[in-house]
From TrEMBL:
Highest classification ranks of the organism: Bacteria, Pseudomonadati, Pseudomonadota, Alphaproteobacteria, Hyphomicrobiales
Pfam families given in the database record: SoxG
Name of protein: Sarcosine oxidase subunit gamma family protein
InterPro entries, sorted: SoxG, TrmE/GcvT-like
Composition bias type Basic and acidic residues, residue spans: 9-27
Length: 194
């Protein structure tokens, strides 16, 4: 076998195939919850020394042409979320010497859940009181899976999860949406008598 043929075979065997993290990108679950996998766009983690930068300064410093959402991630860290590609070089230039950027677009997955039962379903799986009206983003556990949860509208939440956990998360959400959300009225009445 020639050296050229061997190098071509090596390139074929090491080529990276881009696949969607789950097969169905949009689906309606048993309880009517709409689940949409957000692909494309950009997800960039901004890292700074805790206390050295505040969110107002970041919002003022980031000059992008497409709409972006800046979400708190942890002390000194934010996620820059966009449905469109971003010019990360320009953003890095604006934030130089203060904030580091890490592209998470291929390492994390955005999953949108919408419907009247979403809040109740998330309440079963997380330790957050979503009925008090979550207005900000937060890190939490969904069962045993770490997710970044954001309320993006009435009865609409976005979960950001590591790509390697998305299949397990989707299966867990599907299972939770098959569970009854409330007891039948007869059983509720029986509990009141006790």
């Amino acid at each position: 076998m020639s050296e050229q043929t061997a190098s071509m075979d090596l390139r074929k065997s090491t080529s990276i195939e881009r696949r969607a993290p789950v097969e169905k990108r949009d689906r309606t679950l048993d309880d009517g919850t709409r689940m949409t996998l957000r692909t494309g766009g950009a997800l960039v983690q901004l890292l700074s020394r805790p206390g050295s930068v505040d969110e107002a300064w970041l919002r003022q410093s980031i000059d992008v042409s497409s709409p972006v959402d800046l979400r708190h991630f942890s002390p000194g860290q934010w996620l820059l979320v966009s449905n469109n590609p971003l010019d990360q070089t320009a953003i890095a230039h604006e934030l130089r010497d203060t904030v580091d950027l890490v592209d998470q677009s291929h390492g994390r997955v955005r999953l949108e859940l919408a419907g009247p039962n979403v809040q109740a379903m998330l309440g079963y799986a997380t330790g957050l009181d979503l009925h008090s009206g979550l207005k900000a983003s937060t890190m939490t556990l969904f069962g045993h899976i770490g997710v970044h949860l954001t309320s993006i509208g009435p009865d609409v939440y976005e979960l950001i999860v590591l790509r390697s956990f998305v299949e397990s998360l989707v299966e867990e959400i599907e299972r939770m949406c098959r569970m009854p959300q409330r007891l039948p009225q007869k059983e509720v009445g029986d509990f009141k008598r006790l």
